[in-house]
Batch of 2 targets.
Target 1
Amino acid sequence: MAETIFQKIINGEIPASKVYETDTVLAFLDINPVHKGHTLVIPKKPIKDIHTLSDIAAGDLMRAIVVVADAVKKATGAPGINIISNNGSEAGQEVFHLHFHIIPRFNKTEFGRLPHTKYESDEEQVKIAQQIADMVKSQYKESE
Ligand code: AMP
C-alpha cells in the first residue's frame, strides 16, 4: 500500500492535533472539519479499509471510537454525533487508510440524510437478506 497522509501522521512526519493514542489506535482532529471537533479515529497499522481489518484490530478500534465519540460529544456540547466510515472511492473514501469520522452534530436538518429507497417487493427484500446472510455465514466458516 502506498504511504498515505495518515501514515505520515502516525510516523510523526507531519503534525496533527492528536486527542487519543494507544499502541494500536490514533485519533486526531480532521483538518477540514464538518464542525469544529470533528475527529478521525484510525488503526496504526496500514489497513486500507474495513474489508481488511482483523477481528483483534476491530475490537481495539471500536473501543477507541466509543471513547472518542463520548469525549467529542462532551467537549463540543453537541447533542448528537455521526460516526461515518467511507470505504472505497465510490463511497467517498479519499484517504486509503481506514478511518472513522466522529462528527459533532447540532441540528438534524443542516445536511439531511442519505436518500433512502424502497424494495420493489417482499420477495426482493427476502432475497437480498438471504444473500447477505449466506455471505456472513461463509465468512465465519472461513475464519474458523
Ligand atoms: P475520507 O473522504 O473519508 O477519505 O476522509 C478523509 C479525511 O481526511 C477528510 O475529511 C480530510 O479533511 C481529512 N484529512 C486529510 N488530510 C488530513 C490531515 N493532514 N490531517 C487531518 N485530517 C486530514
Note: Residues 102 and 133 are 29 Å apart (CA to CA).
Target 2
Amino acid sequence: MTVTKKRPIGILISGRGSNMGALIAACAAADYPARIAMVISNNPDAPGLESARAAGLATKAIDHRPFGRDRAAHERAIDATLRDAGVEVVCLAGYMRLLTPFLTQAWAGRMLNIHPSLLPSFPGLHTHERALHAGVRLHGCTVHMVTEAMDEGPIIGQAAVPVLHGDTPDTLAARILTQEHLLYPAALRRVLMPDTQPQATADALLCV
Ligand code: GRF
C-alpha cells in the first residue's frame, strides 16, 4: 500500500465531535494525506475531547470564558497551540465560536469549516428548521474555506439530500450528518491533494 506523506492538521471542536471522528477514521488510512496533530476545544466538557483522547490524540481545552470579551486573546492562545503542534491546516468541526479577523487572517486559505446547509442558503444556526420552514426539497452540507464573514468563503464541496415528507429537524439532521461524515474527509483530501481527480457521484437528485 502506498504511504502518503501525511500533513499535520488541527481540529477545533465545541461538542460531540462526530465530524472529528470521521476525520480520525480517514486519517487512519495509510493513503490519506493528513494526520491529526492537535484537537482543541473551547468547551472543556466537550464529549469530543474525550473521544479524541481515547483515540490517542493530543488535545487541549482552551476555555473561552476566562478571556471574557477578549476574543482575540482567546484566539491567540489557540493559534499558539496550533503552531506549537506544527499544524498546517485547521478543520473547524462543530466549533461554535465566531472567529475574529485575527484567526481567519492567520489561517487564510488553510482553515476549513463544515456547515449543515447547501451554502449560500441558510448560513448561521438552526439550518434544518429553517430549511423545513422554507419548504426546500433539497438540503445538505457544505465544506468551505473560512473567511472573515461567517459561513462564507470558497466552497470546496457539498452533499445534497432529499427533504422527505414528514421530516423533522432531527430526521433531516441525521440524514445530513451521514453525508457530512463522507464529505469532510473527501473535501480535506481535495485541499491537500488538489491535483487528484475531483470526485462526484454520477446521479443527480431529483425531488418533486
Ligand atoms: C455539524 O452539523 C456541523 O455541520 C456543524 O456542527 C455540527 C457538529 O457536529 N458545524 P459534530 O460535533 O461534528 O458531531
Note: The beta strands are 7-13, 34-41, 59-61, 89-92, 111-115, 138-145, 155-162.
